[in-house]
């Protein structure tokens, strides 16, 4: 055991300030504000979906922010910094040696996920976090179509020989 070489340690960027460290720790993977706003608007329109649903494809695993499984539509709401938005994305000035390759890998992973989903018959909708909610809803509605009809009837049927709840009472 003493003869084994030590595993090389990858350098890790140290934050410039404790405040920056707290800021980065506060970033969420799911339930971001743009994602919550879009989900709320879609739900209000009658759409039902899965959130952060894992899709196991032959090439890779993918976790869209919103998935319409029956219609095979995967929706991603990408953060401008993390996914290198051409309009709002910025290159970090500190620890650039770490962040530039990391952000490039994020973009590559996004493209690979899009390709894998498309090959599996899914429609991919990618939205930037800065897209207004109404425009995001319009993009999703265009891909998904009209909401599915409710699975449950509006009135209850009798159960165990009892009259329906909405049936008129005696007398």
Compose a concise summary of this entry:
With 171 residues, the protein is of the alpha+beta class.
The percentage of residues in β strands lies in: 5-15%
**Alpha carbon gyration radius:** 23 Å
Characterize the largest beta sheet: strand count, sense, and whether it forms a barrel. 4 strands, mixed
Question: How confident is the prediction overall: mean pLDDT?
Answer: 83
What is the CATH superfamily of the domain at 37-144?
VSR Endonuclease
What fold name goes in the CATH topology slot of the domain at 37-144? Endonuclease, Chain A
Can you count the beta strands? 6
The level of helicity is 25-40%
Helix-strand pattern? HHEEEEEHEH
Structural shape: elongated
State the name of the first-level CATH class of the domain at 37-144.
Alpha Beta
Can you count the helices? 4
Strand order of the largest sheet: 1-4-5-6
Stretches with pLDDT under 50, minimum 5 residues: none
Q: Give the distance, in angstroms, between the N- and C-terminal Cα atoms.
A: 90 Å
Category from helices, strands and their pairing: alpha+beta
CATH level-two architecture of the domain at 37-144: 3-Layer(aba) Sandwich
What does this structure look like?
This protein has four helices and six strands; from the N terminus they run H-H-E-E-E-E-E-H-E-H. By secondary structure, it is of the alpha+beta class. It has a domain at 37-144: Endonuclease, Chain A (3-Layer(aba) Sandwich). A four-stranded mixed beta sheet has the order 1-4-5-6, sandwiched between helices. Helix 2 (33-44) crosses helix 4. The longest helix is centred in the middle third of the chain and has 24 residues, at 96-119.
């Amino acid at each position: 055991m003493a003869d084994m070489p030590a595993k090389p340690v990858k350098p890790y960027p140290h934050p410039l300030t404790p405040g920056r460290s707290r800021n980065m720790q506060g970033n969420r993977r799911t339930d971001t504000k743009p994602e919550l706003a879009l989900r709320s608007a879609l739900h209000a329109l009658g759409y039902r979906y899965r959130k952060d649903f894992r899709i196991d494809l032959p090439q890779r695993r993918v976790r869209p922010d919103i998935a319409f499984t029956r219609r095979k539509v995967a929706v991603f709401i990408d953060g401008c910094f993390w996914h290198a938005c051409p309009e709002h994305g910025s290159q970090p000035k500190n620890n650039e040696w770490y962040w530039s390759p990391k952000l490039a890998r994020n973009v590559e992973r996004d493209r690979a996920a899009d390709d894998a989903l498309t090959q599996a018959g899914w429609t991919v909708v990618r939205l930037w976090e800065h897209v207004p909610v109404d425009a995001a809803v319009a993009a999703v509605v265009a891909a998904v179509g009209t909401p599915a009809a409710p699975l449950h009837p509006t009135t209850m049927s009798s159960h165990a020989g009892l009259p329906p709840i909405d049936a008129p009472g005696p007398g």
